[in-house]
Amino acid sequence: MSADSPADEVRRAVSAVMDPELRLPIGELDMVREVVVTGDVAEVAIALTIVGCPAADRIEREVRAAAAGVAGIGRVDVAVGVMSPAERAALTERLRGGRRRMPFGPESLTRVIAVTSGKGGVGKSTVTANLAVALAGRGLAVGLIDADVHGFSIPALLGLVGRDGLPPQPTRVDDLMLPPVAYGVKAISIGMFLPRGERGGGAVAWRGPMLHRTIQQFLTDVYFGDLDVLLIDMPPGTGDVAISVGQTLPHAEVVVVTTPQTAAADVAIRSALVARQTGQKVVGVIENMAAMTLPDGTVLELFGAGGGAAVAQALSTDEDVPLLGSIPLDAQVRVGGDTGAPIVVSHPDDPAARAILSVAERLVARPRGLAGRALPVTPR
Ligand code: ADP
Fold this sequence. Notes:
Blueprint: H1 6-15, E1 18-19, E2 24-25, E3 32-38, E4 41-48, H2 56-68, E5 75-82, H3 85-95, E6 111-117, H4 124-137, E7 142-146, H5 154-157, E8 171-173, E9 176-178, E10 181-182, E11 185-189, H6 208-220, E12 229-233, H7 240-248, E13 253-258, H8 265-277, E14 281-290, E15 292-293, E16 299-300, H9 307-315, E17 323-328, H10 331-339, H11 343-346, H12 351-365
Parallel strand pairs: 4-5, 6-12, 6-13, 7-11, 7-12, 13-14, 14-17
Antiparallel strand pairs: 1-2, 3-4, 8-9, 10-11, 15-16
């Protein structure tokens, strides 16, 4: 027999309800206020972080259901309020872990993987989105930063598109931004911050310093929580963002996406070398748009063959840079991208999906490198 009063039981049940954006139990977020049980009626007061919180309906519904699930409760009244500015400030401070620093520094346990390519159109974003979903599907806590500022496509690839066809705007709790979640991946993209008129593929004509600040902000002011893996979808080539990310995250691991076309290998190699110059470690090459097998058994090498292996070999100077996998051309990959249903979820048995899932496996199976990492010793 439990010594808990009915109110204690209701509080415990309600406290376990998850905030869908912060992904923490609302009890831990100090959102559960008064709980009173009179007879079979439970009155529960909760305080949300902000007024008009998009998750409000869901939280209220789940609080109601949680309270109603307690034995002896017949009716539940939920009063929804909002935190005071001071309470909110205390909460954001706590979520930041008391720090204002970038949480993905060399000492963090999060594996940071920047996905780059020499040129656009090789399927870098498609592969990155699918890798993120594949890793989340393996139970890892995954964040994805769309740093491809001039051609952001991550929101659409993950189906993060509102009724108006635009990416959702992240909820803000003071200056902390909560990334929308799709397929278990917390994703943030510049496409979520543009004034409405400029979205829908409009080019972002920002200069270096502005881009640098935006990347910094994504790393510092977006609440990802504890992540196992943070993927960064880099813009193609060797521009300002590559340098900015390289300076901010010199310990990041870099994966290069290229096509089988050997003529494109040079630009892919160059983008990897720029990353290496900033101290980042190139951990592998992914070949995309590789040979597809047609229904009659014919093998179609639309983009030739050998590009992935050529890039991997060229980068294997001091240490071995493996070809992590070769993803065939596959109409379902494009359909999945166009409909926001990544192929690793929508058609996991397709050859392309299987190839991506196996790359995901290889990526996280490797031990973390020590490149750029401060060693836990103090020099005398
Ligand atoms: P990038 O990020 O390199 O510019 P995208 O991810 O936007 O490239 O992909 C470019 C186009 O190629 C998209 O229409 C995408 O659906 C398609 N695509 C990518 N990979 C494949 C593949 N393996 N098979 C078929 N289409 C693909």
